[in-house]
Amino acid sequence: MASYVLGCLLLLAVAFVCLEARTDQTQDYTSFQYHRGALLTGDVSINLIWYGKFKPSQRAIVTDFVASLSSSRRSSMVQNPSVATWWKTVEKYYHVSKTTKTRGLTLSLGEHILDEGYSMGKSLTEGNLKALAAQGGQSYAVNVVLTSADVVVQGFCVNRCGSHGSGSGSGKKGSRFAYIWVGNSETQCPGQCAWPLHAPVYGPQSSPLVAPNNDVGLDGMVINLASLLAGTATNPFGDGYYQGPKTAPLEAGSACTGVYGKGSYPGYAGELLVDATTGGSYNAKGLNGRKYLLPALYDLKTSACSTLF
Fold it and tell me: Which one of 7, 131, 196, 224 is at 20 to 30 Å from 176 when CA atoms are compared?
């Protein structure tokens, strides 16, 4: 009897191993895939929630970037390479999708919310970020929480420079809203979160580039915000486009970390333009004469990181 039971247990163990192996084989982590979930669609406002002290000139850097994303007539008049042209790589995701319900996405600058009094203190958790994000509109909106250089955020400088997620909407049952958080790393970890505008903490050492808007912290925030906006648009709720496991996905922007121009390699951002007056390095032009350094995005049609030139 004992041998019979042992035999059954062995058969069950073998079956379990076979089933587990078969399940693992269905998980393709080597390619960029669509996981049948929602993408951001429609006319979406980007609301900016400023937590902590920011100068008006600093807020203008981010504001002009967001306004430059639109495909409006004003944005289309900016000479290439432009921020609006950079965003067209994201728009390709909407044409490739096989879902009949997916329509296009149009972004516009929404409201500004200022919290200069640090209403939740200077040390924030993920829960605090979600609560701050919930202060913005929750219908056809992405709420962006921007924390100043003197604010410590859980995980900041340890394993992230920013993040995106979703929360439960206050409207109809089951509604969700998307949000982004980006921190100013200038005094905390510019070598991790503002490279190549600051010398890196690890890896090949090279001279840092001059920030295009003469503000390492804010120009670094734009880099991270740009990457996270691309990820939010194409994978807002964790079941859109990404590569790798759901718990640590590589998205449209994060799949190309460290790539800014052609010929890039570890320690070298790639071929970039240089402003003759300021010496600032950039690869995209925006509204109001702005110049920005933006990360490469993963192009679904070429299966490669796409740069502006």
Answer: 224
Q: How far is Cα 297 from Cα 86, in angstroms, rounded to an integer?
A: 8
Look up residue 95 and give its amino acid: H
pLDDT at 16: 32
Phi, psi angle pair for 46, to nearest 5°: -105, 110
Q: Which residue type, as a one-letter code, is found at position 77? A: M
Query: By C-alpha distance, which of 144, 177, 150, 176 is closest to 162?
Result: 144
**At 146, phi and psi to the nearest 5?**
-115, 120
Question: What's the CA gap between 188 and 36, in Å, rounded?
Answer: 38
Ranges in the chain, pLDDT < 50? 1-25, 100
Give the whole-angstrom CA distance, residue 140 versus residue 63. 19
Cβ–Cβ under 8 Å, residues 137 and 170:
no
Tokens of 124: 């924030």
pTM for this entry:
0.88
- Asked if 192 and 185 count as a contact pair (C-beta separation under 8 A), the reply is yes
Report the alpha-carbon distance of residue 78 to residue 68 in Å, rounded.
9
Q: Where are the beta strands (DSSP E) in 52-118?
A: 105-115
* Strand, coil or helix: 276: coil
Residues β-bridged to residue 305: 298
Q: Which DSSP symbol is given to 250?
A: B
Q: How far is CA 8 from the centre of its chain?
A: 51
What SS3 state is found at 237?
coil
Kind plus residue range of the DSSP H or E element containing 148? none
The H or E element containing residue 47 is strand 42-51
Q: Which of 230, 268, 264 is nearest to 142 (CA)?
A: 230
In the numeric block, which tokens belong to residue 26? 């269905």
Task: Output the six-digit token pair for 100.
Answer: 């009949």
